[in-house]
Amino acid sequence: MKTKARAWLAARAGEHQATCAILGCGRPTMRARGAGLAAFHCRKHVEHKARHGSHWHGTYSAAELKPYLAAATSYLRPRAESDRFIKAALSAIAVLLEEAGPTEIATRLRGMSPRRRARIALARLRIAGIKPDRFVAIVLAVTALIEEDPGSHRTKEFRTVQIAKALHRLASGTHRVWELPDERGRLRKVSELHAFPRSSGQVLRIMGRAVEEHCEWVVEKHLPGVLALKKKRYGQHPRCAAAAAR
Fold it and tell me: How far apart are CA 77 and CA 73, in angstroms?
């Protein structure tokens, strides 16, 4: 396999840029260094894309997502029983969670396939009690934020990864505490474990796509309503307001 990879690189030795395509980076591309297949980006920005879904845009924080999530939740609640697209998405995600199978502690994930680890991440959300309506709200919220933010990266991969990242934050790790009784019989903490699975790579893509595909019609029909409610309650995105003031 390594011989084939070397032959492939040798045949395409000239098909690359010398430096990373990200403005201001200046580092050599991975192929220029002979240390990977990326023809237009350096290792730093390739790894950045693996983690965030974009070579240059970072992950949105929970604080940035909060007003969009609040608007999406409020918008969905009165329509969940009557709207056929929302009902279908909720039912499909409920099945997705049930079929995710058993969970596993974070320290035992090494060596598992990305698909298996994505299923375990979904199972962890199910066990944490995260309901399907929260999944749909997050898909709508992330899509609305990307749509309104003029500085966002509007690609499907970025949106998919951001959805998975937002879900991952809800129940991402394994937390254990061990206690033993002291001489008076009172329980005392003697050890604890906090382990978090790596939030990067194909796991995020598989997990995000699995959820996002069930919400496509909800986004198609209700994204304008969620955006309108968000603007009414919380105003425009800060970058929109800054651009309007100039």
Answer: 6
Query: Using an 8 Å Cβ cutoff, are 165 and 59 in contact?
Result: yes
Angle between helices 84-98 and 202-212 (to 10 degrees): 140
Q: For residue 176, give the H/E element and its range.
A: strand 174-181
Q: Which residue has the higher pLDDT, 216 or 186?
A: 216
Measured CA to CA in angstroms, residue 147 lies from 12, 71, 80, 88, 227 at distances of: 37, 14, 23, 24, 9
CA distances from 208 to 76, 111, 117, 168 (A): 20, 21, 13, 10
Q: What's this model's pTM, rounded to 2 decimal places?
A: 0.82
160-175 pLDDT, tens digit per residue, is 999 999 998 897 655 4
Token code pair at residue 126: 């199910």
Domain boundaries, the chain: 2-52, 62-245
Backbone angles phi, psi at 37, to 5 degrees: -95, -15
